[in-house]
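In the current project phase, work has continued on tokenised descriptions of protein folds. One protein thus recorded appears below exactly as we store it.

——
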Amino acid sequence: MRSALARVVDSTSELVSVEQTLLGPLQQERPFPIHLKDSVEFRNICSHLALQIEGQQFDRDLNAAHQCLKTIVKKLIQSLANLPSDAHVVACASLRQILQNLPDV
């Protein structure tokens, strides 16, 4: 479970980096849908996870965080799919890399 938690943390850091460096400027150039509800849910799951000690609830929360993160990344890829710019291609490639680095727990 520790390695799964490390992958979720690493992928979250990568996602924040992509959002700051690629998606932020792209959003200003050409607005696309961002699903804030998923991000809020992810934050809530992570907050709950941080309070847990290892055990069944920890495992369930880790799995929920993992699934929520995957959903966020997939929805961002879908949102970018219709944008006609080179920047979106780079952003999508970075997001797909995050998915590849986030195998199932």
